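Tutorial sheet, problem 5. The two components below are modelled jointly, 583 residues in total.
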Amino acid sequence: MDSIITTHELKKSFRSPRGSVDAVRGVSFDVARGEIFGFLGPNGAGKTTTLRMLTTLLPIDGGTAVVAGCDVAHRPKAVRARIGYVSQLGGADAMATGAENLVLQGRLYGGDLATVKARAEALMEILDLAEFAHRKVKTYSGGQRRRLDVALGIIHEPEVLFLDEPSTGLDPQNRANLWDHVRALRDRGTTIFLTTHYLEEADALCDRLVIMDHGEIVVEGTPRDLKRQVAGESVVLSLRDADGAGERASALLGAQPYVRELSDEGDQVRLYVEDGGEALPQILRLLDAEHIGVRSMHLSEPTLDDVFLRQTGRSLRDAGSGTGDEGRAA
Amino acid sequence: MKTVRDTGLLFHRYIVQMLRNPVWLVVGFSTPILYLVLFTPLLKSLPGVRGFPTGGVLQIFLPGILALLAFASGSSAGFGTIFELQSGLIERLRVTPASRFAILFGPLLSGLVTMTVFDAVVVAVGVGFGFHVHWAGLAVLTVLLWLLATLMGAFSTATALVTKEISAFAAVINGINLPILLLAGVLLPISLGPLWLRVLAHLNPLYYLVVAARSLAVGHIATAVVWQAFAVLVPLCVVVLAWATRVFRRAVA
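Model answer (structure tokens):
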């Protein structure tokens, strides 16, 4: 694999009034040139902290990271020249126009005025911002602003673009639009590294991803392979709550040979089965015979949430009510 | 070379932004003018009081106002920094290869330019009230004021980066500003005060600038107080700039 990012046992801890917090505990992974690589995990998992170490914004406490051929700890300047970074906040200047923002950014990367202007114009065209180029950023909508942030990150044609929670705060339409632009960028040869806590985003956008939890990598692979690990399909049963229906149903269904795995989530029972179509009538018949009322029942393909659940025992949707400000303390 | 270029680019950004915000400019202009118009009349009876320096009232008062302006323009720099931290701008700049010194100094330089324009207006209005201009003295004073504004600006910016949020930053800056201003004799000369106050004032860097400013305003340039002011401000300025650049270089935000 032609790796553009390689990390080995990357570590970071923060001092807090309650003692030291290990935000990233020995993370090793490789990102191949030209792929969209994702970090999926709940808030506080250490995704942003890892990304901030890779982008030279946070000193590395332990381990090594090489980005675009340069060691991050020893050659931060060389790394900065080769990467683009779009933070959660974006950081565009609201009082300046989109074009002015891009030109300043391009020139700070060392470009001369003529080249940078031409590049800014071309980028605004590509990202559907041309008609707003000379309006102040404060008049932009959320989606337009996000696209400008991305333009700021790639004005100098970096080898790797880092996106931190790129679609946070975007409506579904703008999110899909942003994904299209990110894929187009990958197709033109830029490697994309992104963090997200949206399952759909990781699934739809990433060529490969790692799932992170409590500062460690839980599992790594393509979305397809990861989902395949969770065998079969999942059946979610919602039960009428009558004298321990959940427990009785779990005991009953857990004993069936076609049920691979089962988790009791209160008034919901989630089963993993080989073939959902075949299992559904059998399950219904069984519950009916035992007089366990079923409110609803549905069958779903495994999602990355199932992968997360399997690996950590928690659902990603419930996990990490955490601090929400990971990486802010330094 | 790169540092100069980056500083120029960032200076341009900040100057343009300032000119786009005329409300801020009006407030900035009106403060020193209000001091001149509303405070100077109170000083009319002071000459002749024991401890009051010789020379016209405005030769004493106007240099104090210029020092106050430089101090305030520098120490308020961090409010902008806090805003830029929260909008992600600082982080966006820090991830570019731009010189760290330029990221610090670009905005400070635009502050110096605005301050110098304000100073010119204050002097022009002062002349209307009877201030007598000694050009050479004023030129040297301008250099001292730049030093002070840069020193305070770098201190304020770095404090903003360390405190990270507006309430903590405002508490630190306001807590420091008041004693420094009072102990410098900005409005009334410290020489009017008792011995303990005069001794205490010598621990305050701003005091040296204010004393030198009053000497320069009456055209006394080659005096001990002027040299002392440079001897205090130049090293302090270098140290604080180095510290603030270091804060930018390290992880903040």
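Marking note: The two ends of chain B are 27 Å apart (CA to CA). Full credit if you identified this.
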